[in-house]
Each structure stands twice: as structure tokens, then as C-alpha cells.
UniProtKB/TrEMBL annotation, chains A, B:
GO molecular function, one term: glutathione peroxidase activity
Residues at the catalytic site: 13 (nucleophile)
Occurrences of domain DSBA-like thioredoxin (ranges): 5-194
Keyword Isomerase tagged: yes
Keyword annotations of the record: Isomerase
GO aspect biological process, one term: glutathione metabolic process
Protein known as: 2-hydroxychromene-2-carboxylate isomerase
EC number: 5.99.1.4
Catalytic activity: 2-hydroxychromene-2-carboxylate = (3E)-4-(2-hydroxyphenyl)-2-oxobut-3-enoate
Organism, as annotated: Hypericibacter adhaerens
Amino acid sequence: MAEPIEFYFDFSSPYGYLASCQIDDLAARHGRTVRWRPFLLGVAFKETGQKPLVEQPLRGPYHLHDFARSARRLGLPFRLPTPFPFAAIAASRAFYWLEARDAALANRFAKRIYQRIFGEGQVPADAAALAELAAPMGIDGAALAAGINDPAIKDRLRQATDEAIKRGVFGSPFIYIDGEPFWGHDRLGQVEEWLARGGW
Amino acid sequence: MAEPIEFYFDFSSPYGYLASCQIDDLAARHGRTVRWRPFLLGVAFKETGQKPLVEQPLRGPYHLHDFARSARRLGLPFRLPTPFPFAAIAASRAFYWLEARDAALANRFAKRIYQRIFGEGQVPADAAALAELAAPMGIDGAALAAGINDPAIKDRLRQATDEAIKRGVFGSPFIYIDGEPFWGHDRLGQVEEWLARGGW
């Protein structure tokens, strides 16, 4: 079995959302699974000196236009939540708490979180909102809430973020195939090509 | 006849070079011509707060890798000149000097300049180097050298740069189709799709 594709993303990233709707199917077409890796993009921005896209002159208006246009092209629902940008710390911690128990379920939960944020325009910013999303998936909301506040889980997210940055991740989505890095949802075509051809 | 596609680029941009090798053929497949528009990306960076890619932590190493990988994928020669980045002022002025005389020839000259820079790894940084490139194309080197130093041509480049930024251009390449903006050489697939479908 080939190694999983590694899919780094921040839950506050619209382009990460667009990739989240495609990455599992894309990988499956080439006999791969996906290791989902939420991290805190703001920490990476401190390294690179970047600011959130929508706060940048010229770039902000372009990307606001492009978020919606890119979603429309893919036939995906898109609503930018208010406020935007936001810090997706609780959701990221919830992911790592769940991943330690059931990685496949954690991946599905990540997709559900992204749908809520950018498909429905609502940010599950705290344990209650996350538990509400989790319940229909058979995830114990009280345990999830406790998990989010567990110092070990907080450390886990910090560690995942540090590892991502150390490796070279600076944006969302950011994908590795057998160590080969691809930044941006508009590189998914190349990600698929790389998988099909085994590189170039 | 449909309006030309507008192709904004900085001669010091590797991704602009990759686009320059494809844009005319791409447009022609959809009955369009291309209006080439060199501008000074550094001036746009002052607006957006960006720095050259290769000077940014994490982003620099990724893009150095990606420049070469992207060229390899397209089967295009690629050599990063030294020093890099550099300011492509003389080449940009030469373009606007020539464009006022023969726009089609100016476009071909722009392609030749890009080939010299990123295909052969040499920057034609002054009038003599540009004249050497221009001679085989039947362009008068002495007139070109005088044009580069003409205050009206210097103004023309400033004006072109200001117009680009006012319009929303912040990167290279940057393409407009009937007012619709696309940033980045990795959006050429979408540019082609937009032309074929008339939007989405």
C-alpha cells in the first residue's frame, strides 16, 4: 500500500475547504488514502511575514471574488462566515482529540466542520457548537468538550503546527505526495497528475 | 472581433515567463489576441506589503523548487539568472518604446527577452544587451537605446504600472478576460476554461 497523501489545512481557509471536498476522492482514484492535518496558519504567517489574504490591499478584493468563483466552478456551496478571518483553534483541537480515537471518523468530522463553516457560513467556535455537529455522527459531545480542554490535546495541536512549519508548510491547503510539496487548491490538478504519472 | 486578453507581467517573474510561452497560443485557440503589459511588480509590492517570493522564509525554498518543476512539466527550459530577483526596468521601457511603433513586434520581443532571462539565465539589463537581442529581429538598436532613455518612455512605464495597480493587479502573471481577473500561471487552465465556456 502506498503512503497516504498528507493534507495540511487550516479550518479558517476557504481554499482549504474547496480542497477538503475533493481530496479523498482524488486520492482514492490513485489507490491512496489521505492523512488530514489541521494546523494553525496564523503561526506559519508569523514565520513568513504574511497577513490574512483579505486584509491585504489589492489581494483581499481579488481573493474574496476568487473564493466564490472557485466554489461556483466546482459546484460547491460557499458562504463566507462573519467575522472572517477567524481562529479555528477549537475545531482543530477537536480533530486531534477524535483522531487519537478513530482517524477515519476524524476525517469525516473535519469535512463536516468545513461544510458548516464555508458551506453554511457558520463557525463552530466552541465546544457546544462542535458537539452539536458531532452528535449526528455518533461522537460523544461531552467527551469532545473535555478533549478540547485537555492540555495534552492543546499540546498536540501546537506540535502538529510546529511540525508542519518545520517541514515547510506555509499555506492552506498544502499537500505532500511522498515528500513532494504542492501549495494551493488550484494545484489539485497537478496533484492528480503527479499521482497518475509518478512525478515528472 | 472579441477584445484582446490583457496579460500583465514583470520581466523578472519566473511564473510570468512560463505564462509568456503559452498565452498567445492559448488566446488564439479561442479567437483572441493578447495585449502584453509589462509593469514593475516591485511597485505593486509596496501597495500589498509583499516581498519577492525567494526572500520569504518557507515560501522562498518552495517557489525555487516549484519554478523548475513547473517548467519541467511544460517541457520548457529554465535557468534562474544571477542575481535574482532583479529589477527589469530597461526591458520594460524597451517594450513600451517598441510597442508604440509595432505592437506585434513588441510582443515577439517580449517573448525573446523572457527566453533570454529564464530560458538562458541571462538578464539583458541595459541598452547594449537589449540591442543585441533586438538586432536579429530587425529592431534598430541605437533607436532602442535612445528610446529607453526618453523621458516620455520612462513616463509610459510608470503610467502602465500605475494603471495596472489601480485596476487591481498585484502579481505576475495577471490576466484579464473581458474584465475578469486571473492571477498566476497555474490559473491558465481556468483562463482557457473561461474563454471556452464564456465564464461560469
